[in-house]
Amino acid sequence: MDTAPPSYSAAVGGNPVQTQPGQQILTQQAVVLVPVILTTQFKIVPYDKPYVEYCPVCKTNVTTRTKYVPGGCWSVVMILAILFLILPLLFLLCWSGVKDVRHHCPTCGSLLAYKRRMCGGSGN
């Protein structure tokens, strides 16, 4: 059998570059992965309950899906309850009235709006 094995560049997958007759230099291509950061813009709203909002991702009007998350007012109540050992205040931490409200698109899940609670009573 008089067949030659494949060249190194063919076996490895590189690109051969001819320098002189009979000599090859192997070059490799590097794949660089660049992270993509998606940013969404949302607005601050005074609504606790779901409402109709335009979703820029779905490009349709949707009724928002709400999610209650701990925010600034929730943190103040928790600190007061811990510092002064006021056990009834700990029950307020389970109440949605002291948590911030996030409004999401029910189809794609993107954040559309946000309601921030204020403990002073001016933002509720």
TrEMBL record:
Annotated LITAF domain residues: 34-117
Gene Ontology CC: one annotated term: lysosomal membrane
Domain of life according to the entry: Eukaryota
GO molecular function list: zinc ion binding
Pfam families documented for this protein: zf-LITAF-like (PF10601)
Subcellular location: Endosome membrane; Late endosome membrane; Lysosome membrane
Keywords for the protein's UniProt record, in alphabetical order: Membrane, Metal-binding, Transmembrane, Transmembrane helix, Zinc
Family: Belongs to the CDIP1/LITAF family.
Annotated protein name in UniProt: LITAF domain-containing protein
UniProt organism field: Caenorhabditis remanei
